[in-house]
Each structure stands twice: as structure tokens, then as C-alpha cells.
Design brief:
four-stranded mixed β-sheet; alpha/beta; Peroxisomal Thiolase, Chain A, domain 1; 2 domains; binds oxa(dethia)-CoA; 11 helices
């Protein structure tokens, strides 16, 4: 038994923030952002809109695309939970009319959706759950330092979700295998330093800037490409597949240059690589489902997912695309 994709739904907040708009308050410009990242615009939530709000909408759309019905578990992959405690998933489950189901968050930063997909697949394969809603959702704009041009221009807000049900590995929609990894030596490369137990908000009065997201972009860039390439090769080897068998590469949308380099090194032709970072920026845990929705997938397509992010973490997965109507 494995997990089979049954529904997909995505949601982004309506407000579009262009590169020119950011250039009014930051020492940056449209040309730098486009050429260094491939980003033309991103969506940012209005103050008061939380990760749970975006997750609930994407989850509702995914359930609708799956024909409605119940789930046994809700998993939210996010690095911007509504609160440090409790997890965001139980509230999302309740708001979706799924009270009392198992609900928890997965914290693997930009690799979160792949980790959550693996967790859901494990729950289903073990017979612990029969149907799982997996959501990647972020309000990155809430944690960005308005004075940090290097991170602020990159990240966007959004959410995407898949409904998984128990099924047969030979069915269209079947998920797996997976390759997951981490390297905690790089924990400081992507972080929000304050607000956790190491630098608690109340006790040590950390400076305001330490509550913001920060990233050593250049160093992360150095790790991202080889990790995603190696992980992709590992998952293909587990499946006994060749790169030529992949119809569509759907990678974490961190930077168009990274995506192009990963595709090139793997030998996946450009037209089979999905890039939608131009419209959404890097939405961290939400990029994979947002990209799945934009990939123009047709039933039977063999899809390679690969992601890399804070932790450091990385992960890849294979799936065949089912015949479904995304909401
Ligand atoms: O999603 C999780 C994983 N994240 C990633 O994989 C992100 C990986 N990193 C990246 O995508 C890239 O490193 C960035 C897009 C973050 C930065 O691009 P880069 O080509 O690595 O630029 P850089 O950090 O090496 O900076 C080059 C220059 C610097 O100026 P000097 O020192 O050469 O004078 C920066 O100060 O660009 C400057 N710079 C900017 N200039 C205009 C940095 N940010 C900006 C900006 N506008 N927004």
C-alpha cells in the first residue's frame, strides 16, 4: 500500500508586490532582482492574515478537487506557524470541518512539503491513516526584516495542498519513493534567531532584528545545487528510473538560477522544468504544491520533486500524476 494523490488546491493572498514597489523602500531594483533570482513579483498577505488562513483556503480547495469527504490527518509544513505553540495544523483541521483528526506541523523550512509528503505517505503505508491532507503554507512577509534587501526581495506568501489516500503503487497518482536528508552543521545559514528556547523573547530581550528571518544566501546557494542534484539522483536510483523517464521536474522555487542549474546538471531539458518563481517568489514550504499547480501536468506524467532549505534539509520524491481537477 502507498499514498495516492487525489486532490490539489492552492491559494495566494491577493496583494501583489512588484520589484518596483520594493525598490521604493529598499536599495534594490527590478533588474537586480530579475537577473539574480528570476522574481518579477510576489504575493504578500495583509497584516492580520495568518498562515492558518492561507492553509485553510488551500486545504479546502484540495479537498474540493478530491471530491470532498473526510481525512484522518492534517499535516501543515511551515516555517511561519501562527504561533510557536501550538501547531497550526489542529486549527486548520477544525476550520476545515475535520475536528478530532490527527493534526501536526512539520518544520523542515523550504523542504517542509517534501518531508510532510513523506510523513503522510508513511502514515498511510503503515495503516495509521487512510486519507491525509498535506499542506505547505507560509506568511513569509511576517518574518522578513524590512531593512534586509537580500531576503526581503526573495520571499512570498502562499499555500498549496495535496489530498492523499491509500492506494496501490501501480495506480496513477502513486507517491514514492523518497530521499530525505539533513546537515545540522549548517543550522545558522537560514534562521530566525530569537523567540525559541535558545534566545527566548522574554528573558533576554533580544534585539528586534533577531526576530527576523535571515539567510546567508551565498553560502546556501553553494549547497543547494549539489544537494538537490544528489538527492534527485538518489531517489531515481531507488525507483530504478533514469532521468529520461522524468516528464516533469518540479523543484523548490528558491531561485531561477538554482532551478536552471539543477535541471542542467541532471540533464532534464528546460521545457520539462517548472519555474513559477517569477510570479510568486520563494514561498518556502508552499513552493512545491504551487509549482505542481502550474506545471501543466497530465495524467500519467512522472514527476520528480526536489527541495532544499533551512536546517539544512533536502529531499526528493517521485510520483505519477493522477487524473484530477485542481481547485
Ligand atoms: O529557499 C531556501 C533555500 N534558499 C536558497 O536556496 C537561496 C540561495 N541563495 C540565493 O538565491 C542567492 O544567493 C541570493 C538571491 C540570495 C543572492 O544572490 P547572489 O547572486 O548570491 O548575490 P550575493 O549575495 O552574492 O550579493 C551580490 C551583490 C552584493 O553586493 P557586493 O558585495 O557585490 O557589492 C550584495 O550586497 O548584490 C548585493 N545585493 C543586492 N543588490 C541589489 C544583495 N541583495 C541585493 C538586492 N538588490 N536585493
Amino acid at each position: 500500500m502507498t499514498a495516492v494523490v487525489e486532490g490539489l488546491g492552492v491559494h495566494v493572498p491577493p496583494r501583489i508586490v512588484t520589484n518596483d514597489e520594493l525598490s521604493r523602500t529598499l536599495d534594490t531594483n527590478d533588474e537586480w532582482i530579475r537577473t539574480r533570482t528570476g522574481i518579477a513579483q510576489r504575493h504578500w498577505a495583509d497584516p492580520g492574515t495568518s498562515t492558518a488562513d492561507l492553509a485553510t483556503e488551500a486545504g479546502a480547495r484540495a479537498l474540493k478537487s478530491a471530491g470532498g469527504g473526510e481525512c484522518d490527518a492534517v499535516i501543515v509544513a511551515t516555517m511561519t506557524p501562527d504561533r510557536i505553540c501550538p501547531a497550526t495544523a489542529p486549527e486548520v483541521a477544525a476550520r476545515l470541518g475535520l475536528p478530532h483528526v490527527a493534526a501536526f506541523d512539520v518544520g523542515a523550512v523550504c523542504t517542509g512539503f517534501v518531508y510532510a509528503l513523506a510523513t503522510a505517505t508513511g502514515l498511510i503505508a503503515a495503516g495509521i491513516a487512510g486519507r491525509v491532507l498535506v499542506i505547505g503554507a507560509e506568511v513569509m512577509s511576517a518574518v522578513l526584516d524590512p531593512d534586509d534587501r537580500s531576503s526581503t526581495v526573495i520571499f512570498g506568501d502562499g499555500a498549496g495542498a495535496l489530498v492523499l489516500r491509500a492506494g496501490d503503487p501501480d495506480e496513477l497518482g502513486a507517491v514514492g519513493p523518497f530521499d530525505l536528508g539533513s546537515d545540522g552543521e549548517g543550522a545558522d545559514l537560514i534562521e530566525i534567531p530569537a523567540g525559541g528556547s535558545r534566545l527566548p523573547t522574554g528573558r533576554d530581550q533580544p534585539a528586534r532584528a533577531q526576530h527576523y528571518f535571515r539567510m546567508d544566501g551565498r553560502e546556501v546557494y553553494r549547497h543547494a545545487i549539489p544537494r538537490m542534484v544528489e538527492s534527485s539522483r538518489a531517489v531515481l536510483a531507488k525507483a530504478g528510473m533514469q532521468v529520461a523517464d522524468v516528464d516533469r521536474l518540479v523543484g523548490h522555487q528558491a531561485n531561477a538560477r538554482i532551478l536552471n542549474a539543477v535541471g542542467e546538471r541532471l540533464g532534464v531539458p528546460t521545457e520539462r522544468c517548472t519555474v513559477n518563481i517569477d510570479r510568486y517568489g520563494n514561498t518556502s514550504g508552499a513552493t512545491i504544491p504551487l509549482a505542481l499547480a502550474d506545471a501543466g501536468l497530465v495524467a500519467g506524467d512522472r514527476v520528480l520533486l526536489t527541495a532544499f532549505g533551512g536546517g539544512l534539509t533536502w529531499g526528493s520524491a517521485l510520483l505519477t500524476w493522477p487524473d484530477l481537477a485542481s481547485a
